[in-house]
Design brief:
By secondary structure, this protein is mainly alpha-helical. The protein is about 65% helix and about 0% strand. It has a single domain, classed as Orthogonal Bundle (Ammonium transporter fold).
């Protein structure tokens, strides 16, 4: 029994690490998709922003975000610093952190694509810091953190982050789009649309397929385990459904 438990721990940990690596590769997909769809003069800025975004997300979530999301704290937010006082059930704590931090970066990347060519580097990095260190973790604490907010969200389930990742990123992106408005040159004084040519459709297409690959890790990894036949069957169904979708 002890050997079986250890093997399950190892398999679950390895699966989280592999899935996290696939999701991390989505950062490259977002970068290529954005860079391919913007004007040539802005490609360098877009690529730099995506690299910096991922770096800021990793550091901010390690120092503060993970504890706000999974620390004991209270019903609204967790407590602690740099993974202190946190634990993972059935797999390595650091594998759990790695898998979660790439989710955080994905939420920030959703915003990045929306405000491409509309915002300067440092204001966006400041926003990324706030989103990944505070906004996302607190919202995540309400669901994946185990709290029920006094029963307000009892029974709510988010398997792979449709609310925690994509809704948070989507609402933040919408707020940014409303505040910043359209890209310069998109409309003339009469409100007529001026097409903005993409810099590289092949790069954007490659980015799309990289994201497609990353989704298998994103959704399949959310099973959080690969130590039993039931887990393997569930992951197979998730990945097959993801590909069809």
């Amino acid at each position: 029994m002890e050997f079986q438990a250890e093997m399950k721990y190892v398999l679950d940990t390895i699966w989280l690490l592999i899935s996290g690596a696939l999701v991390m590769w989505m950062a490259a997909g977002f970068a290529m998709l954005e860079a391919g769809m913007v004007r040539t003069k802005n490609v360098t800025a877009i690529l730099t922003k995506n690299i910096a975004l991922y770096s800021v997300a990793c550091i901010a979530f390690y120092l503060l975000g993970y504890n706000l999301m999974y620390g004991e704290g209270n019903a609204v937010f967790g407590s602690g610093f740099a993974l202190s006082g946190t634990s993972a059930d059935g797999h390595s704590l650091l594998s759990d952190f790695f898998f979660q931090v790439v989710f955080v970066a994905t939420a920030a990347s959703i915003v990045s694509g929306t405000v491409a060519e509309r915002v300067r580097f440092w204001p966006f990095m400041t926003f990324t810091l706030v989103l990944t260190a505070i906004i996302y973790p607190i919202q995540g604490h309400w669901t994946w953190g185990g709290t029920s907010l006094g029963g307000l969200i009892d029974g709510f389930s988010d398997f792979a982050g449709s609310t925690i990742v994509h809704s948070v990123g989507g609402w933040a992106a919408l707020a940014g789009a409303l505040l910043l408005g359209a890209r310069k040159g998109k409309y003339d004084s009469q409100g007529n649309v001026h097409p903005i040519p993409a810099s590289s459709l092949p790069m954007a297409t490659l980015g799309t397929f990289v994201l497609w690959l990353g989704w298998f890790g994103f959704n399949g990894g959310s099973q959080l385990a690969l130590g039993s036949k039931d887990d393997a069957d569930a992951i197979s169904a998730v990945i097959a459904n993801t590909n069809i979708a």
